Amino acid sequence: MTQAILDTATSFLKEKGFLEPQIGIVLGTGLGQLVTHLQVEVAINYSDIPHFPVSTVEFHSGKLVYGTLEGKKVIVMQGRFHLYEGYNLQEVTFPVRVMKALGVSSLLISNAAGAINLNYKKGDLMLLDDHINLQGGSPLAFATVSDFGERFTDMCAPYDATLNEKMLAIAKEKNIVLHKGVYAAVVGPQLETRAEYRYLKIIGSDAVGMSTVPEVIVANHLNLPVIAVSVLTDECNPDDLKPVNIPEIIAVAGEAEPKMITLFKTLIGQI
């Protein structure tokens, strides 16, 4: 990760029309339809952007979209990158650095996750209040990180309190169930064993997934206010564990997506 690489990608996108964006959005598994609500001005495949990784997950679109939503200029990542695709943590989080360099002042993140807290049900949404990094590394662990921000980034409050309060108020107003909890990030792509689910519960996790935390760490490194919401696509009960059904997980995410879109659109209108 160097300034020259960041500058090359940023300059390319500015030339393509990604001008003065206000909000960055990362869309996770089964949550790509927010872009249909945009007044799209530019859409570029990740493969065409210098130094960008390429999404290898079949249900991630792999496009960077720029346009207007609720009166705000936004950049939407339609699909993200994961450690389990073979990328390193600097590559996974490179798009967050690019969006910040382009000018975004807030970052909204979505993901699909499994419910460790069995009071939370399949199809519910969870606002991230805190997280546990179990991915075995940090996106800030590289030699020149101090060129981009404080090496020893504080993480006592990784999710922006003001944005979280706004989101909770919106959910209450819209009569949308929105839990608040702790998200554990693992490497994947394999799903967890019964013993691992029990461990995740013991250490205080309410949900588990394979993304988001590296992006949030980098957002904090860049002093970029960030908020994240999980769609809970399955219930991870170690005493009644069934083989994973990926099509069902994608279907649950799709069914919950309208609620996520309502929350994100309303929040964007208030930022």
Automatic annotation (TrEMBL):
Pfam families cross-referenced by the UniProt entry: PNP_UDP_1
Keywords from the UniProt entry: Glycosyltransferase, Transferase
Provenance organism: Flavobacterium profundi
Pathway it works in: Purine metabolism; purine nucleoside salvage
InterPro entries per UniProt: Nucleoside_phosphorylase_d, Nucleoside_phosphorylase_sf, Pur_Nuc_Pase_Ino/Guo-sp, Purine_phosphorylase
CDD domains reported in the protein's UniProt record: PNP-EcPNPII_like
PANTHER family assigned: METHYLTHIOADENOSINE/PURINE NUCLEOSIDE PHOSPHORYLASE (PTHR11904), PURINE NUCLEOSIDE PHOSPHORYLASE-RELATED (PTHR11904:SF9)
Molecular function as annotated in GO: purine-nucleoside phosphorylase activity
Protein name: Purine nucleoside phosphorylase
Superkingdom, natural source: Bacteria
Cited function: The purine nucleoside phosphorylases catalyze the phosphorolytic breakdown of the N-glycosidic bond in the beta-(deoxy)ribonucleoside molecules, with the formation of the corresponding free purine bases and pentose-1-phosphate.
UniProt keyword annotation of GTP-binding present: no
Domain Nucleoside phosphorylase: 23-268
GO biological process terms on file: nucleoside metabolic process
Root EC class: transferase
